[in-house]
Write a structure and sequence with these properties.
0% strand; Cytochrome Bc1 Complex, Chain D, domain 2; binds heme C; mainly alpha; 3 helices
């Protein structure tokens, strides 16, 4: 009788530990899984807003500073690689700083053929 009680106690002890462990690991897993989609959605939204701002700024520069000497073609007139070379050549002529050059480059390459 005494031996049976001891076995039952040990079994109960193991069961408690097993439940505690499984609960603990479940909590950790759900927390990190629950946070991830929210974070990446926020990051995506921020990235989209940054890109939108960059595109707007780039187009504005393209239509103003780039038209001092000549008209500008549709951005689809050149490939992305060709735009790299053109902007490298034209940015100093238009006196663009690094940020302005990056904005124009983003804009024209987005519309490249
Ligand atoms: C100071 C005057 C000047 C400014 C400002 C200028 N360009 Fe030019 N661009 C030229 C000249 C001159 C040419 C003729 C080709 C050459 O000399 O390389 C030219 C040619 C081009 C061409 C044709 C290239 C080809 O190979 O067919 C494109 C496209 C162009 N520019 C885009 C731009 C863009 C975009 C900007 C703004 C970042 C800009 N340009 C600013 C003077 C300018």
């Amino acid at each position: 009788m005494l031996k049976q009680k001891k076995v039952a106690c040990v079994a109960l002890g193991f069961l408690t530990i097993a439940i505690a462990v499984s609960c603990a690991s479940k909590t950790v897993a759900t927390t990190s899984k629950a946070n991830q989609p929210i974070k990446s959605a926020e990051n995506t939204q921020n990235a989209n807003e940054n890109l939108k701002a960059l595109m707007t700024k780039g187009e504005e520069i393209y239509r103003t500073k780039c038209t001092h000497c000549h008209g500008v073609p549709e951005t689809s007139a050149y490939s992305s690689n060709r735009w790299d070379r053109i902007i490298n050549e034209m940015a100093p002529r238009a006196r663009l700083d690094a940020a302005e050059k990056n904005a124009v480059l983003t804009y024209v390459k987005a519309g490249a053929r």
